[in-house]
Fold this sequence. Notes:
Elements: H1 4-18, E1 23-28, E2 34-36, H2 39-46, E3 51-57, E4 60-65, E5 70-74, E6 79-85, E7 94-100, E8 104-110, E9 116-120, H3 124-127, H4 141-148, H5 155-160, H6 170-180, H7 193-212, E10 253-257, E11 260-264
Parallel strand pairs: 2-9
Antiparallel strand pairs: 1-7, 3-4, 4-5, 5-9, 6-8, 7-8, 10-11
Helix pairs in contact: 1-7, 6-7
Amino acid sequence: MPELPEVQTILDALAPLILDREIHSVTALWPPVIDRPERMLFAAWMQGRRVVEVNRRGKYMLFRLDDDRWMIMHLRMTGKVRVVDASQPLRPHDRLLFHLLDGRDWRFEDQRKFGRVYLVESPDEVIGKLGPEPLSNAFDADYLMRKLARRTAPIKSLLLDQRMVAGIGNIYADESLFRARIHPLRACGSLTRTEIEGLVGAVKAVLVQALAEMGTTLQDYRRPDGSIGSFQNSLQVFRRTGEPCPTCGAPIQRIVVGGRSTHFCPREQLLTGPTHPG
Ligand SMILES: [Zn+2]
């Protein structure tokens, strides 16, 4: 599933191709991709509109239209977007086509069909419950201390909770916990202030590096021009089960946390947490 760095990379590439281009009409090849409003209304409201601003919140792509409504897209597991000449043949999993007046199509493709688009008056209708952006100043040790206090859930699960912090998924949760040397099953409330400061720094560092490397391509993620990211070459634990830890050489272990595959170094990320002198 594309996470913050992948969604941002896609949006950066997509923006110059669609900004200020009039949308002539919409074809929903698989109508349930439209979450709201009802699909005839969606098509009618999109007709003749232009995207005047693009933005990202968590894993959502936000497109402000020239009538001040917002079209919002979530790629979920396998969603992809591309902009091609309208004469290009369709692909089997194309779900939604925005026909641009300039003769090109903005196409939303999605093999697994979990991706959704929304057209709303206010973005809060869709993204109002999201936690802060992990790269913003709002996501700091004070914030995380408050959120984690007294909670017994594993820290990995909280990192994936979009209401706690928006945009992190399985890859960057595992990589951040490794860099912070925190076991994914540690109870949130057991983390020390020092560990939380380390985790905040690790989350930000991992995301900044992944953004610079245009995201991680494991299977489905592609930039709109079809090219791949390169952070998969920088992964230290994610899907490296049995391979040596890059810092200590211990074999990376895989466990399941909250139904999600989780990878960590058993020698450096300890369930007991830090030992305090005295
Ligand atoms: Zn290690």
